[in-house]
Amino acid sequence: MQNLRFDYDIEKETRFLVYLMLVSTEVSMGVPKIIAVVNGKGGVGKTTTAINLAATFSRNHTVLLVDADIQGSASWWFGRSQKGMGFDLSQDTNSKLLGHLRSIKGYDLVIVDTPPALQSEALAAVVDVADYLVLPTPPAPMDLAVLVDTVKTAVTPARKPYRVLLTKVDTRSLGEALEAQNTLLQLGIPACNAFVRIYKAHERAALEGVAITEWRGKNGREAESDYRRVAEEIQRDWRK
What we know:
The protein has 240 residues and is of the alpha/beta class. It has helices at 10-28, 46-57, 73-79, 95-98, 121-129, 141-155, 174-186, 200-208, 220-239, and strands at residues 33-37, 63-67, 88-91, 109-113, 132-137, 162-166. Keywords: GTP-binding, Nucleotide-binding.
């Protein structure tokens, strides 16, 4: 049998381990930016927005998506993925733990899918530590009424920067979205210039366990571009 010889340089190994520790410490010392996706009403595109913003931002950042909604829609979607989605996910609805999101290490960005309940302790805890709030809503008058209530109840008292994001916008009646944006402007509520059009691609992407950034079916690229524009707009707000 051939004798194998291994040269082990303990000094070199020690230097390497110290290097890894320093790198790990350096990464973990950063405080992540926290985005909360908020609305007091369900079915407005909140989870779709959280998932797709996480996927969009993950192209240039390390991202953690926190599913704080007891319904667990984001966790269900993420669990259907066969090869991962480019970001990590954690499910937690405990308000005390959610209040310590700033202590999370190793991520540039934490996005939180919050529960659709304005009196929720979990929602209050997340809003309290968030740097920025995104409020998705369809442009229909009844949805806007709930959105305005959400702003008055959960957002304005927190004094955090935020924008409303119009979702499920019908491409055949873009005038409704423009009218909704004007209404919000008159109310002094900031809204994204970009909006998210309604496409079957969003439903099919969820069923396949992929974000819209990875969906290759009909209207996939159009749907992806909507969220890319939203992400760019949010980043411009950060730089102000």
